[in-house]
Amino acid sequence: MSETTQPAPDTIALAGNPNSGKTTLFNALTGEAAKVGNYSGVTVAVKTGEMFTPHGKKLRVVDLPGCYSLKAGSPDEKVAFDFLVGGEENDPAKQPKLVVCVVDASNLERHLNLTLQVIELGLPVVVALNMVDLAEKAGLRLDPQKISEELSVPVVPMQANADKGVIDLKHAIRHPFPPAADPHWKRDGEDSETAGRSRRTFIQMLCTVAARRPEQDQLTFSDKIDGELLHPVRGWIYLAVTMFVVFWAIFSFASIPMGWIESAQAWLAGRVSGMMAEGDLQSLVTDGIIGGVGSVVIFLPQIVLLFLFIGLLESSGYMARAAFLMDRVMGRVGLSGKAFLPLFSSYACAIPGVLATRTIDSAKERLVTIFIAPWMSCSARLPVYFLLVPMLLSRDEGHWVQALVLFGLYSIGTGTALIVAKVLRKKLGPDEIPSHFMLELPPYRAPQWSYILRHVCGRAWAFLRKAGTIILGLTILLWALSTYPKSTSDDPKEQLANSAMGRVGAVIEPIVKPLGFDGRVGTAILTSFAAREVFNATMAILYQVEETDDEEATRSALRDRLAAEKRADGTAMFTPLTVMSLLIFYIYALQCLPTTAVVARETGSWRWGLGQFFFMTAFAYVASLLVFQIGKLFGF
Amino acid sequence: MPTLDVRELETDSAMTLSQASVGCDFRIQIVSGPQCDRLRDLGFCESLQVRKLADGRNMICSVCGTRLAISQELGEQVKVTPL
Fold this sequence. Notes:
The structure holds two protein chains of two kinds. Mean pLDDT of chain A is 82; it is low at 33-42 and 547-552. Chain A has 28 helices and nine strands. Chain A has helices at 2-5, 22-30, 75-84, 108-120, 132-137, 144-151, 166-172, 192-210, 221-229, 234-253, 255-275, 280-297, 300-316, 318-332, 340-345, 350-356, 363-372, 382-392, 399-428, 449-483, 492-498, 500-512, 519-527, 534-542, 554-564, 576-588, 593-603, 606-633; strands at 10-16, 47-52, 58-63, 98-104, 125-130, 141-142, 155-157, 211-212, 438-441. Chain B has helices at 2-10, 36-42, 72-75; strands at 15-16, 25-31, 49-54, 58-63, 66-71, 78-82. The longest helix of chain B is centred in the first third of the chain and has 9 residues, at 2-10. Strand 9 (438-441) of chain A pairs antiparallel with strand 5 of chain B, so a sheet runs across the interface.
């Protein structure tokens, strides 16, 4: 095997302040080989990829989370620091062989601090002087040669987002690596405070000779836009409109590709059932596999759109403004605006949201944010919402009413999360070291389409892979459970009641009955504890929705089937109240095993992960119970 | 230390960034307080120029062409003099 005979490639690390363009450079260096992380915009975990030097030597490239200094103030900075010093045991063998310090050329006064600290670690450094175009636009007079001389390290001016200077950088990091520079600004035996002062004095001297600023900068384009978007009154209107447009667009634009997927699915089921003889195998393929997986894959367009919008908001710079505005709201519940980004990401998926809490300095605030993150309705709930929301409304209602209901569901989850945050934050008490809000507002930039598209494709692929593996496995299992053991009766209802699934349903029916559900809905809820999306697949199997080869979708067929379902006493099974109760359950229940695992890892204790799981499940049950019982009292 | 004493004398006319008025340019004199290291990392270093762009619960300042949002409490830890 070639891997065992070849030595492992040398590791080089990309370090730099947040918003210096590390990830853009990482993608430019590693190209298609880049492993896109599970979180867009802010890198909170170490990402790795591979690149080749101009001489064909393979290097392993590691993209570190952005940090301002190596003092490890927040968990993501600690990740970067630990990596640079060779892990917690300070093992030189684990240290990177070279560090590319990415600095924003228009902000050298601020960004060079980290570069000097990396040089002080005794590591070979190459400085990537990124975004020189912006610096020139701002009227800065840069002298890369002078910077290189003063720091004694190679300095490469570049513009990573336009692939300018990438080749020069590759030349600079070719073998042999440049030697480690002498940190001549530092005197022996300095304490950390005087060392910081020496660094600042040196940087100021360097910037006066090598990065001269024009006398006084005028208000920039970004400042003018901020004047409007961060306006105390109008700012909120823009924020509300932006959020509403995002949700509305997801609901309406996605229906077009969803129609295509539906037709393709129906066509496939028709073809397959025509080619196979009637029997269990045909039933497995058409009802179990195509119907089950199809009822989940259909939501791919919505998930793609959600990630696309989040990518757009982050890439353009608006997300930081939203965090700034939201600080006031978050402050009321004891959180800061920094919690907004993780919570907003949780609307796509709680896992990247939980990871993104690493940017929060206060440990207690971070715990609270992790705790409430799963109540931001994630994209896995969308399939369930999309199935159920139209059942609340009459069919001919326009898209905007459905979007309004959807917006309401999201608001219920978010509102409760914030109340729980307030209670929990009070219970945890104040921080030992009070932390205050500080945030960089990056200049508005045109979105980096290549990065966003790559990220969206990564997420879409992850979703499809999940549909092809876990969900496929579960749907086959569910199909088997609802088919066997067979009864002698031909009536599908009796057949289902006799099956293993029917029996499970009968056992849990008394538990879910007070919520307004029957055993089948109870079973569907039970199966969706592995992954929420499975709810639709289970319902399709349990209510025996058959594939037809016309354009009628599985989802609307299932909806028709559910609407026609009657209870034993002849009343409709799915009244608006039952649907509401079911929706409430799905807003609150934490039905995602990976989230629990990630929460346990991030908080360092299973107590938090399991505590959150049981709390949310119990909360969902009680909330759903209250909605149904109170609703019934009022005669709904 | 003597250098600090001189600075302190200089800052007789100084005010905190929280007190400073919006739209004006200032020079940072002293950054002191529990969060001073963090503020310096962010870019609020002594002798740099700063412009206050917006006020409120959190204020927006421009340092070296970058917009930074900090809370009023942090603004109290940055002493500035008008330019």
